[in-house]
Amino acid sequence: MTASESEPIALAFDDNRLALELFGQYDQHLAVIEQRLDVEAVARGNQVTLRGDADACAHARTALQHLYRRLKKGQTVVLGDVEGAIRLAKEHDRQLSLPTIAEPDTVAAIATRRKRIEARSPTQNAYIHAMERHEMVFGVGPAGTGKTFLAVAFAAQCLERGLIERIILSRPAVEAGEKLGFLPGTLEEKVDPYLRPLYDALNEMMPPDRGTRAMQTGVIEVAPLAFMRGRTLTNAIAILDEAQNTTAMQMKMFLTRLGEGSRMIITGDPSQIDLPPGQKSGLKEAMRILGQVDGIATVRFKGEDVVRHELVARIVAAYDADRPEDAPPASPGPNDDTGLRRFLKADG
Prior knowledge:
2 domains, Ribosomal Protein S8, Chain: A, domain 1, 3-stranded antiparallel β-sheet
C-alpha cells in the first residue's frame, strides 16, 4: 500500500433491494465510479469495498451514500445521477461557497409534477440556488451543462406552486451558421424551430395535455424577441435562451421588460455566437455592465459541468483548448430588428 492509499473502506446498506439498484445492473454504477475516480469497488451482497487513493475512496463513499439516500426517498438512480454525484463529491473538500452533499438537504433540487431534478454538479447547485434567491440570473457556459433545462424546470415549478401566473419563452431568431430561407406558416410555426429546445424541456416537466392547454390559454407564451418591445412582464418568469445571439440593443430592451412579481433567466454560450460579423453580443455586454448590480446573479458553467454525455465534455474541452484569442470587437452592424423582420416575412 502506497502512502496515498487508504485502508479499504467497507460500506454496508441496510436494504438489499436498494443496494442492488445502487450498484446498478451488472454493477454498472460501480464501474462508472471506478473509472471516474480510479478506485476499485467490489460488491458482495449489500456491501461494497473501496480500495485506492485515500481522497478518491472518500469521494466514492460520499457519492454512494448520496445515491443511496436518493433511493431511500423513492427516487431512481440512473447513470447521469452517478456522474453528478461524483462531480459533487469531488468538490466536497474544496473551499467553495456551495453546500456539500454530505448534508443531503443542502443539495439544490427542483420538483415538478412529473419529476424531481437534483443538481448534478456544484455549478448546477449554485445555479438553482441563484434562481431561488435572485430576480435576474445569467447562466452562461458551454452546451450540455443544463442551463436551459434547469431554467425551464424552475419556471414550471414556480408555475405549479402558484408563485407566478405565466411563463414566457423567448429566443433570438438567428440561424446557426446556415441560411434557412423564409419559413412559411403562422407566427408560431415560424418561431417553433427556434424554440424547440425550450418546448422539449417543458414537456419533461409537465404532462403534455397540461402543457398544450397552458400554451393555448397563454399561461405559457412564446414571445419572439422582436415583439417584446413596449411590454411590461408582471407575475411571470421570462426565459431568454441563446442570449449570446442578441444584439446590445435587443438585450437592453429585454432586460428592461421586468415588472412586478417577475423574474428573468438569461442563458447562453458566449463561445457560440452566430451574429453577423461586426455585431456585438448583447450577452457579453450585459454581463460586463451588470456584473456588480445588486439583485443580479451570474453563474458560469465550465466544460467539467457538462452533463449531457461524457463525450460532449471532451469535445467542449478540445474546442476550448484550440480556441484562438478573441478578436477585438468591430463596429456595430445593421439595425437590430432587420434580421427578425426578414425571418417573420412570408415567402415571396
